[in-house]
Structures are given as C-alpha cells and as structure tokens.
Amino acid sequence: MWRKLKILSRFELRQTWDDKGILFYTLICPSIYFVIVTFSSGGHPFGLHNLAYQLLGYWAYIILVGVLNGFQFGLIGMRENNFLKMFTIIAGDKRLIFYSNLLVQVVFVQIEVVLFDLIVLILNPASLSLVPMMVGGFLLNFILIPIVAGFSNFILLLPLKMNVMSLLMMGYIFLGMLLINLPYQQNSLLNIVLTILSPFSYLINFYVNALRVISQPTLLNVALLGIVALVYLTVGYYPVRHMKLQSYTSRY
Amino acid sequence: MKIENFSYQLPDGCQLFDHLSATFEPGKINILLGVNGVGKNTLLDFIAGVSERHNLPFTNFPLMNQVAYQMQGAPFTGTATVAETIQMMVDLDQPDGRFESEQLPAILQPIAQTHFRDLSGGQRRLVTLIGVCQLKRELYLFDEPESGLDVKVAVKVIDQISQLAARGKTIIMTTHQFRNLPTENVRLLVLAGKGIVFSGTPAELMAETQTDSLEAAYLKTDS
Fold first, then answer.
1. Could you tell me which residues come within 8 angstroms of residue B114 by beta carbon, excluding any fewer than 6 positions away?
2. Does A7 touch chain B (CB under 8 A)?
3. CB–CB contact B50 A88 (8 Å)
4. Residue B19 and residue B45: Cα distance in Å, rounded?
5. For the residues A227-243, what does the mean pLDDT come to?
6. Contact B75/A78, CB-based, under 8 Å?
7. Chain B interface residues (partner A, CB cutoff 8 A)
8. What are A11-28's pLDDT values in tens digits?
9. In what order do the strands lie in the sheet with B2-9?
10. Domains of chain B, start order
11. Residue A60 has what pLDDT?
12. Rg over CA atoms, chain A
C-alpha cells in the first residue's frame, strides 16, 4: 500500500506542478494584498500583536483555498476527465488516489505558507520575533489541513458542474472571511457556532488557542476544537468512500 | 461470468437495461456490439466495479483489483513521457515489478521518450491500450480499442488483445469495427432494445441471419 501511495504521490505532484495557476490565488494574491497594505501604511500596517493575528487570517486563507482548489477541485477534475476511474482500477483502491492527492496538497500548501511568511519577514523585519509562532503554525498545519479537507469534502458528492461549483465556493470563501472579522468574544456563542460551521473560524480559533496569540486556551475551547476535529475527520471520510468515479457531466 | 435479469435506469430516468441477461466466457474474447448510446460503456463500468454492483445480479466477476480497463479518453499527465507513464502503470500493478523503458513493446519504442502532451490523439490511445495490456489481471475490458488508430496500428492492437486471450485471460471489448476483429476464441454479444438479443460465435450469428458477412449479420440482428 505504501509503495502504491508513493508512486501515486509522485505522479500527482507532477500533475499539481503542471497546474501552477493555482499559486495565483493561494500565494500571489495574498502576497500582493499584504505588500499593498504594508506600503500604503508606510511600512507599519499593524502593530506586532495585530500582525500576528492578521497572519493567522492569511494562513487560513492559503489553507482553505489550497484545499478547495488543489485537493477537492483537483479530485473533481480527475473524476470529470476519467483519471479517477482509470487510476482507481489500476491502483485497486479509490482511497489511495485521495490520500496521495491530500499528501501532495499538504506539501504544496506548506510551501506556500512558508513563502508567504518569508515575504512578511522581508517586508517587516520587526516580525522576526514572530518566527517561533510561524514555526508553530507550520507544524499545526499538518493536523489542520486534513481537518479542513473534512469540512469541505461534502462538495465531492455534489452533482454540480465545475463552473457552478467554483462560483459557490467563491461565495463560501468570502462568507468565511467576512465572518472571522465579526467582533465577538472567545467564549461567546457566536464563536462556538462559527467554529463548528466555518473552517475559517475553526482555523483561526485553533491557531489562537494552540499558539496563544490573544489569550490562554480555555478548557471549553480545547474540547470544542477537539470534538469538531473528530466530527469532521469522520464526516469527511464519508465522501471519500462514496464519491462517484464517473463523470457527472458526461456518460463517458 | 454471468449477469441475470439486470435492469438499470440512467439518472435522467431513461431505462437503459430491462432484465438484461448475459454470459461472458472465460478465456475468450467476448465482443459486445451495439449502436451508440445502447449502454455498452455503462455495462463495462458495472462489470469493472466502477459502478457499484454490490447486491446486483452479477456473478463470478473478479474484484476491481483483478480487472484491467481501457476506457475512452487517455487521462495522463502531460509532462510524463510514454515510458514513465507505462512504468507507473506497471509499478502500481505489480508490487515487485521492475519495468525499464527497454521493455516497452516495439510499437512504443519510437515514442518512448516523448511527453504525453506531444502525442497525437491516436498515439495517446495506443499508449493507454498497451499500458492496460501490460497489467497482470484476470479480466480485461476494452472500450472501442481500435477507434482513432490507423489501420496498421489497429491490427497490432487487436493482435495484443488476442495474445491475452491465448494466455487464458478473459476479454470483454466493445467495437464498431468489423474489419480487424479477432477470429479465434471469439464470442459475440449483441446489445439492443435494453437487452442482449444474440450471443454466440460469429459463424452462428451469420448462420442464424443467413448472411455471409459479419457486418450484414449484425445489421440484421440489430434492426
């Protein structure tokens, strides 16, 4: 099984590298935004504490868009061009295609996060003191990326065309970004509801508690984050088992 | 390998099969004939296990990991060479397998180091076909294998398929071509009107329809 996973991962790494356009949304767009904000504020866009918090938002964006575009849309694309069907038969197990794809996306997203952090460090030398937080965030991402995939894996089951799906997901991303900017307290009901429903809010809440960015973690929050992770990892496995291998847009 | 009384509706509600029954003989080339849209591809998907066939009346078909399936389209990475593509297919199939580009069949040697994106449609199809033939499985499914290939190459492809049957492998293939069809170990199944309307050897089909060519016999059966 591990050998097959290695072979498929190598192949999918190549496939992902062929489609470098995704970097525009996951790395170049947030970097340009950060550069504009930095220069328009004379090099001091945020205080260090605020910068730390803003950084979490950028990470959350890179992860979610990376998972949606690279992993889920990648799989849907594979399904529509028969790749999923063909390679499931050759590999003998659909799950191997999913796991190898997720593995490759974890690597890609992590590279993008590191590159983004480097841009922040170059543009704002004061952020050097945030390096330990950046390392912590990098390590946490290995846990968080599969959880975020669990949040949004449901789209693998939707019988929608790619362009409709892209539009819906754009709305999903904007709504998620909007909601993390609502003013609410750490232990408020709104925070709990958003942590359960929105992967953006979940990611921010997880970083805030694990990296102790704003406050010390509370037992309630830790329990909430753990339960939500377990639920989405379990629920996210269902589409992996039941995703159709054949195209929704063509009988062939 | 048997299908008994299988009925199936497409998601749009169209009834594709109605109490379809068919027997595919092991170690033979079972050729599925039928007009476009009659459901040959859908049936192959069920046989391969790509469409869920749990609790459906399919008996004695091997599991998915014992099926090789050449489907329409050639979904491979553009930057991989032909040799790398075949090597990956063989590596995935045979855990202890070692495949070197020198082992590629002669027909692929001239394009061994060509990137997949630089191949013509016919060449891509050929690579997929040869790759599928390299897999060590019990059952081989080919969906219009000679379509898009020039006559010379099509003859070689049919020869590869015949060799698989000669080694005792079971083949199920669909086709619209009658010119290059294999002649030995062949069994025909004609799919029409939501079911199988004929199954037997080419000679039996011609005798039953009182025609002297396979094409004429098929046209008479499917009319």
1. B81, B82, B123
2. yes
3. yes
4. 17
5. 88
6. yes
7. 10, 41-42, 45, 48, 50-51, 64-65, 67-69, 71-73, 75-80, 88-89, 91-93, 95, 135
8. 888 877 777 777 777 888
9. B15-23, B2-9, B58-59
10. 2-221 (3.40.50.300)
11. 92
12. 19
CA pair distance A54, B43, nearest whole angstrom: 54
User: Minimal CA–CA distance to A58: which of A33, A30, A82, A83?
Assistant: A30
Q: Alpha-carbon distance B212 to B217, whole Å?
A: 7
CB A11 within 8 A of CB B77: yes
**Packing angle between helix A73-80 and helix A83-91, nearest 10 degrees?**
90
Of A236, A221, A251, A249, give the one whose Cα is nearest residue A99: A236
- Report CB contact under 8 Å: A91, B92: yes
Chain B residues lying within 8 Å of A82, measured CB to CB: 71-73, 75
Amino acid at A203: L
Return the pLDDT at B49: 86
Beta bridge partner(s), residue B139? B67, B170
Q: What would the two tokens of residue A225 be?
A: 């984050």
Residue with tokens 């060449």: B123
Could you give the CA distance from residue B121 to residue B108 in angstroms, rounded to a whole number? 14
Per-residue pLDDT tens digits for B151-175: 888 888 888 888 888 888 999 999 8
Q: Are A29 and A107 in contact (CB under 8 A)?
A: no
- Out of A7, A17, A81, whose CB is closest to B91? A7
Q: What is the ipTM of this complex?
A: 0.80
Residue A252 has pLDDT above 60, yes or no: no
Q: Which amino acid is at B66?
A: Q
Q: How far is CA A239 from CA A76, A213, A235, in A?
A: 12, 34, 8
